[in-house]
Recover the amino acids of this structure.
């Protein structure tokens, strides 16, 4: 079984870079506490320095209440400090981070998923068979099942025939699984979602989006990976 991890999108890469900068600056502040952070979508690189200075001020004041940056009326970030339970810290340490609100990823999400799949599938130089089951794994906390379904199975199409009081649903032919260059190479996509949000250490719930021509390999995948849920082309997440 061959598995390739999906690349982060541009937004996630920028956020990860900002978190690394914040963590590096927190290491220079010699207070043994954790920092829990939440970010709004408009938090940028220019906000890193002022935020860290505000965190340092709160640490010096030994203030454990929740703080807002730059203010509580239109915050770009919120944070609070908390004591470690079973360890001793030499400096401020990022304990958890999360988003304050949902991002609107309509359309963007499907294009981003397809683009990342294009990069990941290049690792597979062979087609699927009983000895080579090709899966791409993606962290999907910021995507919903509909976004992934439309990327891999195709856009949903709704039609209504004259005289029929019901919508008919179908899939467009643009699904990633069904492109000629991918159809035999990719068995499925596994979406990972954290079971403990905002924590560095978390379990994952695993959802398999299966290329139905390889549905016969599902039991093998379950044994190897421990799938929690499976989505097929005709399922409506």
């Amino acid at each position: 079984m061959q598995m390739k991890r999906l690349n982060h999108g541009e937004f996630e890469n920028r956020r990860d870079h900002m978190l690394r900068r914040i963590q590096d600056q927190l290491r220079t502040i010699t207070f043994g506490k954790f920092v829990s952070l939440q970010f709004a979508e408009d938090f940028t690189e220019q906000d890193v320095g002022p935020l860290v200075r505000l965190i340092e001020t709160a640490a010096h004041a030994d203030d454990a209440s929740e703080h807002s940056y730059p203010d509580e009326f239109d915050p770009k970030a919120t944070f609070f400090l908390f004591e470690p339970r079973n360890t001793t810290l030499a400096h401020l340490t990022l304990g958890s981070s999360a988003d304050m609100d949902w991002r609107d990823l309509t359309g963007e999400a499907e294009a981003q998923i397809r683009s990342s799949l294009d990069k990941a599938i290049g690792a597979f130089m062979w087609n699927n068979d009983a000895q080579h089951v090709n899966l791409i794994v993606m962290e999907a906390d910021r995507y919903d099942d509909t976004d992934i379904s439309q990327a891999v199975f195709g856009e949903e199409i709704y039609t209504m025939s004259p005289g029929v009081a019901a919508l008919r649903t179908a899939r467009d032919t643009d699904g990633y699984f069904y492109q000629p260059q991918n159809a035999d190479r990719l068995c499925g996509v596994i979406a990972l979602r954290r079971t403990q949000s905002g924590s560095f250490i978390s379990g994952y719930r695993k959802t398999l989006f299966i290329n139905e021509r390889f549905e016969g390999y599902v039991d093998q995948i379950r044994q190897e990976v421990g799938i929690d849920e499976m989505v097929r082309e005709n399922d409506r997440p």
